């Protein structure tokens, strides 16, 4: 990028941030977080009661109807607000708010057609890319359980499908096969490992969708992306206070969420490591997360929910590895990358995690059994 175009981008960001600034003046806009899809910025204001907010450019190649996200967020947060008014919690819990523009809109379309929106910042809170310890694991589980609990009485059909096909593993598999048929990947031990890994698990990809079709698992509302860095912790108390990133809150299976929370929370080296031999699934953290989850989710979990939990963990890990590998084969068109083999490296992390999950299947089943 030339110096002039950098200055242009900064000026644009200030203009865009200003659209959502109803009080005070924008003092800075800085890149924020580590999202793989949208572009996220933290806006700091001078002279406003709330001195910061989160500004995001939605990736409209991925989210084709971003207006639906904003509509879902309004319905979701109104519902949760009412629930918390009726039955207040005895601890801090916050829901990110949609901020309106000066024209009272939920989003702002810039002159280049980009879709921007702003969300309140959870003050005095932080998130982590890797699990800190068992106490955090329990809090992460609690946070996901609370999230599910607060929407367990909101009918799934009230929210739109913001991302059709999201977490439908057989669809990702079909896409993989189409991409593979066209791709001409450079042969390497890493690529061969992934090709073999996927081809050994083809029938497994259908397990949750089959259970849904057979009526064993009901359609509910889910978060869609409850990886651990989407849980905010109060800096003072070190307690979970919010689940953020609400773009994929939509009808689905809670097993996708439980699986995503555990695959991200029980991998102590995190999903961005290149040290593949150090990747493993920590069953103590798994037990901690599930304990925290079940304390708030017990009342709506059925026997079948427990019966499919292990498969959910294994499947979502497989699905994410498959999505990363497919994107590598397709030329990195979906997830942002820092170097050409980034998605291949990410895929291997998830596949190594599955090897560890599979080798501890009995223990994980036992942990789940003991939760009932
Ligand atoms: C993407 O952009 P981010 O980091 O919130 C992806 C998730 C993956 C995650 C892996 C809409 O989420 O499904 O689990 O990367 N989101 C979408 O880090 O595809
Ligand atoms: Mg996300």
Plain-language structure description:
With 372 residues, the chain is α+β, with helices and mostly antiparallel strands. It folds into two domains: 3-121, Phosphorylase Kinase, domain 1 (2-Layer Sandwich), CATH 3.30.200; 134-371, Aminoglycoside phosphotransferase (APH), C-terminal lobe (Aminoglycoside 3'-phosphotransferase, Chain: A, domain 2). Helix content is 45%, strand content 13%. It is built from twelve helices and eleven strands. It has helices at residues 3-19, 66-86, 134-151, 169-182, 189-199, 207-213, 254-265, 283-297, 303-307, 309-330, 342-359, 361-369, and strands spanning 25-31, 39-46, 52-58, 98-99, 108-109, 115-120, 125-126, 220-222, 231-234, 240-243, 250-252. Strands 1, 2, 3, 4, 5 and 6 form a six-stranded antiparallel β-sheet that branches. A three-stranded antiparallel β-sheet has the order 7-9-10, covered by helices on one side. A hairpin with a 5-residue loop joins strand 5 and strand 6 (115-120). The radius of gyration is 21 Å and the shape is globular. The relative contact order is 0.12. The mean pLDDT is 96. Bound molecules: 2-acetamido-2-deoxy-1-O-phosphono-alpha-D-glucopyranose (GN1) and magnesium ion (MG). Magnesium ion binds at residues 225, 245, 247. The site of 2-acetamido-2-deoxy-1-O-phosphono-alpha-D-glucopyranose has 10 residues, from loops.
Question: How is this fold's topology laid out?
Answer:
Blueprint: H1 3-19, E1 25-31, E2 39-46, E3 52-58, H2 66-86, E4 98-99, E5 108-109, E6 115-120, E7 125-126, H3 134-151, H4 169-182, H5 189-199, H6 207-213, E8 220-222, E9 231-234, E10 240-243, E11 250-252, H7 254-265, H8 283-297, H9 303-307, H10 309-330, H11 342-359, H12 361-369
Antiparallel strand pairs: 1-2, 2-3, 3-6, 4-6, 5-6, 7-9, 8-11, 9-10
């Amino acid at each position: 990028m030339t110096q002039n175009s950098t200055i242009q981008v900064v000026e644009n960001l200030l203009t865009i941030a200003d659209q959502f600034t109803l009080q005070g003046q924008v003092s800075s806009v800085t890149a924020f977080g580590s999202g793989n899809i949208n572009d996220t910025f933290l806006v700091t204001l001078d002279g406003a009661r709330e001195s910061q907010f989160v500004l995001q450019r939605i990736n409209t190649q991925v989210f084709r109807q971003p207006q639906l996200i904003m509509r879902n967020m309004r319905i979701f947060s109104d519902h949760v607000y009412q629930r918390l008014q009726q039955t207040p919690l005895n601890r801090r819990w916050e829901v990110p708010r949609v901020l309106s523009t000066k024209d009272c809109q939920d989003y702002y379309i810039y002159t280049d057609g980009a879709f921007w929106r702003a969300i309140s910042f959870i003050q005095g809170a932080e998130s982590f890319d890797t699990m800190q310890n068992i106490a955090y694991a329990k809090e992460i589980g609690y946070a996901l359980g609370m999230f599910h609990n607060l929407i367990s009485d909101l009918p799934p059909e009230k929210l739109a499908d913001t991302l059709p096909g999201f977490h439908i593993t057989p669809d990702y598999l079909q896409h993989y096969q189409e991409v593979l048929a066209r791709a001409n990947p450079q042969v390497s031990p890493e690529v061969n490992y992934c090709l073999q890994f996927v081809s050994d698990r083809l029938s497994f990809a259908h397990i949750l969708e089959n259970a849904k079709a057979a009526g064993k698992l009901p359609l509910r509302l889910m978060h869609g992306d409850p990886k651990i860095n989407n849980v905010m912790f109060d800096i003072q108390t070190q307690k979970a206070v919010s689940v953020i990133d609400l773009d994929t809150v939509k009808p689905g299976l809670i097993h996708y969420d439980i699986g995503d929370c555990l695959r991200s929370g029980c991998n102590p080296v995190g999903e961005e490591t290149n040290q593949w031999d150090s990747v493993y699934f920590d069953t103590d953290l798994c037990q901690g997360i599930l304990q925290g989850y079940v304390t708030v989710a017990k009342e709506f979990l059925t026997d079948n929910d427990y019966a499919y939990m292990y498969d959910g963990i294994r499947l979502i890990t497989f699905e994410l590895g498959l999505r990363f590998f497919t994107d590598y084969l397709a030329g990195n068109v979906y997830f942002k990358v820092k170097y050409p083999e980034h998605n291949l490296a990410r895929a291997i992390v998830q596949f190594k995690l599955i090897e560890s999950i599979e080798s501890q299947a009995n223990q994980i089943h036992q942990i789940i059994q003991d939760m009932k």
